[in-house]
Amino acid sequence: MLLKFFFKALCASVVCAAALLPHFVFAQSEPIKIALIESLSGPFANTGEAVFRNLYWATERVNARGGVKLGAAAGGTRKLQLERYDSKGQNEEALSALRSAIDDGVQFVMQGNSSATAAVLIDAINKHNEREPQRRVLFLNYAAVDPALTNEKCSFWHFRFDAHADMRLAALMEVLKDDASVQRVYLIGQDYSFGQAVSREARRQLGVLRADVQVVGDELHPLGRVKDFAPYAAKIKASGAQAVITGNWGNDLTLLVKAAKESGFEGKFYTFYGNALGAPAAIGDAGLDRVLAVAEWLPNAPGAPSEAFYQSFRQRFPKPADDYVHMRMQLMVQALAQAMEAAGSTQPLAVAQQLERASVTLAGQHGSMRASDHQFQQALMVGLMQRQGSAGVKFDVEGSGYGFKVIRQIPAARAELPSRCKMERPAS
Q1: Is the pLDDT of residue 25 over 70?
Q2: 32-163+314-378 has which CATH code?
Q3: What is the pLDDT of residue 3?
Q4: The CATH homologous superfamily of the domain defined by 166-295+380-414
Q5: How far apart are alpha carbons 380 and 292 in whole angstroms?
Q6: H helix intervals, 155-216
């Protein structure tokens, strides 16, 4: 009887002690929510799903090593949890998704497949963080490359992990400036801030590096609304252009290069995103030695660590249609986890202060954040479309039989460009 009473008393004392412990002891297993706000339906759904696969894989790899190691006050070791919010390719829907994410307790937002959307999210987050400092949010941008976002519109709460349009264009120009066969170029892009920025900068850089090159066409088309690019392709061919410079992405790029092929255009395409999402298969043999793409990393990048990284992605997502991996997104998630661990917290201000000094390496690729404007600095590569199996092309794209050979590598120090950002920082 006495023993039975002892055990009852012991159990009661444990329950009472547990009730008095701080709540964070029991919240340590709660995941750290990350909101992906992206086009997951509509004409650019394929780009949104490609992003989701990359970020999901990146969070899986952080979680596989145990998660993010925080101090006891922040819940101990916690896993990352990626939440999907569909913007449907509309800015108003993206703002609605942001409000929903904040209401769901999200502190970290990721978006990238539209500079126009990124701009409205930055503005909304700036206002929200000023209005509700107890519920601040950080914005991590993996693909919105309008240069203004880390220049005139820079924000303490925004971090960009992709090279912006001027940096990407400068990398392409390192190849074009040495291509004596190109004397006439055609500029074509999507009619919004990013496409307009590419057009302006292409003219400027051509004037500096190749003043002998004539711009024989310069036009913008509606974003995601053109179903038939044949009229545009006909104008490109009729212009006598020997090369096209375009920042088009998603279906707007695939349909453009397909129409150009069907029109008989035999010039080169200097692209930002011509290395995937259907473009290589659409252009086929006509793209051999003619389609160039710039990226922070390409599957045929030299080195065993890079090859192993790519093969591990293909093992995780074996379907050919899922073959679009972004090194920068992996580095971004690694940098976020690193910053939270260094801060010992998930509070956005503390994390931002650590993210400003992020320096991460993965599979032989390295990048670091520039604190003055929150523009990630990393090496860039230019690839040339060739058949799989040719020299330097071990891997193809999306099962198409075509891959990209790395023909130019630009070190981070040379890819870096000055910034006009005047950062306003919150009081610590």
Answers
A1: no
A2: 3.40.50.2300
A3: 43
A4: Response regulator (3.40.50.2300)
A5: 13
A6: 165-176, 193-209
